[in-house]
Automatic annotation (TrEMBL):
InterPro entries: Kelch-typ_b-propeller (IPR015915). The chain crosses the membrane at residues 321-342. SUPFAM superfamilies: Kelch motif (SSF117281). Residues 1-18 form the signal peptide. This is DUF4350 domain-containing protein. Keywords: Membrane, Signal, Transmembrane, Transmembrane helix. It comes from the Bacteria.
């Protein structure tokens, strides 16, 4: 008979130590914590230890009606779950679910031992027992199943929303934060060789409410799913191959490495450590006498000296900054296009100029008849032109005065229309007003802001 010694080391403010509690059991034990009890499941019985009092209950021995099941029953092959003060154990290979009712192990599922979710992760959510991933028959799972306590059936948690799903994984680390659950540093199967296992450092987060996956990137540090790895608050504690303690902070995605080999080398895998009120509880191997001790000490003392702090997520600079780079590039391309267009587009002429006695807008000559050109030149030369002087420019001898007046008005109207059309400006170029010197006289004035003509043109 193998002896199982629980030495309770209570490091309180007075540094007192409790008397050791001695337990004897046959075979392997399964040890599980669910506040406020540590459950000790052995082949023939189970008992509890209350935390933080560390009071141990009397053993409750199982009544086995099936001798075949008794012979095959190995507590360490099951995972313990607590839902609404009821204790359930699920077979790690998949399928079988038992409820501990008093001194009986009662099978409640309608499934079978399918061996399709070996080394899957398990957790309780919404009063259901969930499993994710797992290995079986040369393939790995990338979906969730759950056991419904009411229907006594295993169901698939589907459908998954969105277009992102992780590869099948097993032996993967699991961090839970409310409705979000994160998987990282697991094992996947080579897509071209299903006999080849590979490490995956991808971080996948699943929202149990929206049923959507999000790829958070890759870890900068790989560590396996050690049985001693555990979660507390927003931290995940792991143990690497160098017996160092790794603490991942999931608030800011950083990790620290602590050096405390005196502790990390003694942790027993039989109880996943847990933290309550700033104290960590774990089983430690006493290499001197072969006993196992239940130890409690402040979490800071457990961690020891911090020797490194780094980012836990590998930064993909292109993925992180590509939207900004592409946006800036688009702005530069558009800006360059606008600049080149403005620089090399045919410039629109804005001024009427003269050359060899002909008026031009840009390179296009403007066709004015003789009378229009005489009136325009005169209006360009002088500011205010009396009506009589304009009339004298175009009047015809021997015709009635009213006819000459109509001719003058027609010339002025034609000039106005031509200048508007040529310059594409909605304004009257020739205005009719009272003289500034004699209000009895009417004068004409030309808006000269669109003209740049030479003195030679005006003197013709």
């Amino acid at each position: 008979m193998k002896k199982f010694l629980l030495l309770i080391l209570l490091l309180s403010s007075f540094l007192t130590q409790a008397e050791p509690l001695r337990l004897s059991y046959l075979g392997e034990a399964n040890i599980f914590y669910s506040k406020p009890y540590i459950y000790l499941l052995e082949k023939t019985h189970y008992r509890t230890i209350k935390v933080p009092e560390l009071t141990i209950s009397e053993p409750i021995y199982f009544k086995f009606s099936d001798s075949t099941f008794y012979k095959k029953f190995t507590p360490s092959s099951f995972t313990i779950n607590r839902i609404d003060k009821k204790i359930f154990i699920t077979l790690n290979l998949g399928g079988l679910v038992y409820e501990i009712r008093g001194n009986e192990l009662v099978r409640i599922d309608h499934s079978f031992e399918h061996k399709m979710q070996i080394n899957a992760q398990q957790f309780v959510y919404d009063n259901r027992i969930f499993r994710f991933g797992g290995y079986g028959f040369w393939s790995a799972r990338n979906f969730f199943t759950y056991f419904d306590i009411n229907s006594k059936e295993w169901e698939s948690y589907s459908p998954v929303q969105g277009d992102k799903v992780p590869p099948g994984m097993f032996d993967v680390n699991q961090y839970i934060n409310g409705d979000e659950i994160t998987y990282f540093n697991g094992i996947i199967i080579n897509p071209f060789d299903n006999l080849k296992f590979e490490r995956s450092q991808e971080i996948w987060q699943f929202n149990l409410t929206t049923k959507t996956w999000e790829n958070k990137g890759k870890t900068t540090l790989f560590f396996g799913n050690n049985p001693q790895n555990f979660q507390y608050e927003n931290y995940y504690i792991a143990f690497n191959d160098e017996r160092r303690i790794v603490r991942v902070n999931f608030k800011n995605y950083t990790y620290e490495i602590f050096e405390n080999e005196a502790v990390s080398s003694k942790i027993s895998p039989q109880l996943k450590p847990f933290v309550e009120n700033g104290y960590i509880y774990y089983f430690a191997n006493n290499h001197a006498n072969g006993d196992i001790e239940l130890v409690s000490l402040p979490i800071d003392q457990f961690l020891g000296k911090s020797i490194l702090k780094e980012s836990f997520i590998e930064r993909d600079f292109w993925k992180e900054y590509s939207p900004y780079v592409l946006g800036l590039l688009a702005i530069l391309i558009v800006s360059s296009g606008i600049y080149l267009f403005l620089k090399y587009r045919p410039s629109k002429a804005r001024f009427i100029k003269d050359k060899d006695g002909v008026l031009y807008l840009g390179n296009a000559a403007i066709n004015f008849d003789e009378n229009e050109l005489k009136v325009l030149r005169f209006l360009l030369k002088f500011d205010d032109v009396p009506n009589s002087e304009l009339l004298g420019l175009i009047e015809q001898k021997g015709v009635h005065f009213s006819h000459n007046i109509r001719m003058k008005n027609d010339v002025l109207n034609q000039l106005n229309l031509k200048l508007k059309a040529i310059l594409q400006v909605d304004m009257n170029f020739i205005i009719f007003k009272k003289s500034d010197t004699d209000s009895r006289l009417k004068v004409y004035r030309l808006n000269k802001q669109y003209f740049k003509v030479s003195e030679e043109f005006l003197q013709d």
